[in-house]
């Protein structure tokens, strides 16, 4: 008979998200894990978590509600905290981002300290905490945390990291590179300068890292790590978009000048990213694998239809570009936010 006292009891928040689902896929492969999933209940989460019902305990609740979090945090050995409001919603609704990301993390820490004081907490932070790195794209964990102006998501992650480090719990923080998977095209694509060197990581590898952290927690405790795909996952944003547009049938990335911002975003190359992989060995995919995954998800007919309507689609996309609107309208404040050297005539117009 199996000795259940030897089983590791794990709490996973945000399991229905892109990284959360991948983490859960890796966790359920361990028969000695007792897994509790905590997530908000809606049609989408219920559908995504349905395949795991026989293998995990699913607790639906609101991470902003301390009492509901307390119920899920009893007798846990490990907690992987992935629940968060991410961009663009975090920028559109900063109050919600603060409630879920910061208050939610505060609630989880309180609940674990009260009901699982010996729990080891693994937290998902972000490369956005480093802010604009266009001038110095190589990033190390010792670098100053300075989210770009207006980056509410990055600001919440800095606050969360501070809360965790001040807690009584044992912890590790992973600052995630650009995690590419199930991304919907949004106005955010125009916020990143085309010359940005970016390091991606696939959701599969990222989920693998969080799951493997449990096995190797003694080598990770009370430490912060940058998590990325490594040198085989580094690409210039311009080339990344070129490749993605070609895969989707959108043709060339031929937007007008000033459609893309020139500053005040984030991303870069993780100079010390190998440190985490040397411990966990989570990297199994590279850029080629990522684009293969993208290609497999696109139906040939869908690609043909997209190609036929590519000009209409790109016209709509351009209408979503905030940097372009700032340039066309001569909005001095926004011009200054998005661009290094704004068009003089536009500046003059804004100042009149």
UniProtKB/TrEMBL annotation:
InterPro entries, per database record: 3Beta_OHSteriod_DH/Estase (IPR002225), NAD(P)-bd_dom_sf (IPR036291)
Classification via Pfam families: 3Beta_HSD (PF01073)
SUPFAM superfamilies: NAD(P)-binding Rossmann-fold domains
Domain of life: Bacteria
GO MF annotation terms: oxidoreductase activity, acting on the CH-OH group of donors, NAD or NADP as acceptor
Residues in 3-beta hydroxysteroid dehydrogenase/isomerase domain copies: 12-167
GO biological process, one term: steroid biosynthetic process
Family matches, as PANTHER family: ADP-L-GLYCERO-D-MANNO-HEPTOSE-6-EPIMERASE (PTHR43103:SF3), NUCLEOSIDE-DIPHOSPHATE-SUGAR EPIMERASE (PTHR43103)
Name under which the protein is recorded: 3-beta hydroxysteroid dehydrogenase/isomerase domain-containing protein
Organism ancestry: Bacteria, Pseudomonadati, Bacteroidota, Flavobacteriia, Flavobacteriales
């Amino acid at each position: 008979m199996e000795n259940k006292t030897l089983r590791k009891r794990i709490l996973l928040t945000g399991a229905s998200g892109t990284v959360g689902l991948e983490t859960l896929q890796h966790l359920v492969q361990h028969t000695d894990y007792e897994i509790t999933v905590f997530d908000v209940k809606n049609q989408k989460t219920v559908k995504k978590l349905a395949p795991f019902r026989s293998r995990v305990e699913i607790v639906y609740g609101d991470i902003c509600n301390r009492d509901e979090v307390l119920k899920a945090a009893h007798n846990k050995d490990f907690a992987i905290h992935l629940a968060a409001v991410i961009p663009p919603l975090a920028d559109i609704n900063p109050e919600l981002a603060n409630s879920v990301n910061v208050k939610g993390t505060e609630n989880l820490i309180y609940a674990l300290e009260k009901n699982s004081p010996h729990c080891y907490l693994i937290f998902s932070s972000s490369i956005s905490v480093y802010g604009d790195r266009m001038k110095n794209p190589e990033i190390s964990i010792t670098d100053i945390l300075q989210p770009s102006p207006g980056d509410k998501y990055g600001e919440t992650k800095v606050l969360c990291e501070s809360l965790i480090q001040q807690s009584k719990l044992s912890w590790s923080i992973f600052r995630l590179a650009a995690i590419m998977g199930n991304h919907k095209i949004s106005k955010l694509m125009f916020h990143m300068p085309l010359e940005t060197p970016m390091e991606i990581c696939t959701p599969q590898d990222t989920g693998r890292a969080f799951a493997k952290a449990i096995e190797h927690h003694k080598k990770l405790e009370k430490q912060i790590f940058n998590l990325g795909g490594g040198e085989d996952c580094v690409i210039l944003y311009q080339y990344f978009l070129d490749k993605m547009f070609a895969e989707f049938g959108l043709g060339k990335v031929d937007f007008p000048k000033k459609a893309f911002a020139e500053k005040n975003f984030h991303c870069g190359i993780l100079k010390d990213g190998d440190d985490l992989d040397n411990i966990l060995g989570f990297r199994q995919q590279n850029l080629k694998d990522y684009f293969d995954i993208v290609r497999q998800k696109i139906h040939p007919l869908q690609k043909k239809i997209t190609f036929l309507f590519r000009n209409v689609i790109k016209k709509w996309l351009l209408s979503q570009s905030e940097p372009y609107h700032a340039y066309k309208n001569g909005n001095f404040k926004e011009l200054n936010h998005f661009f290094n050297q704004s068009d003089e005539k536009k500046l003059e117009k804004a100042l009149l």
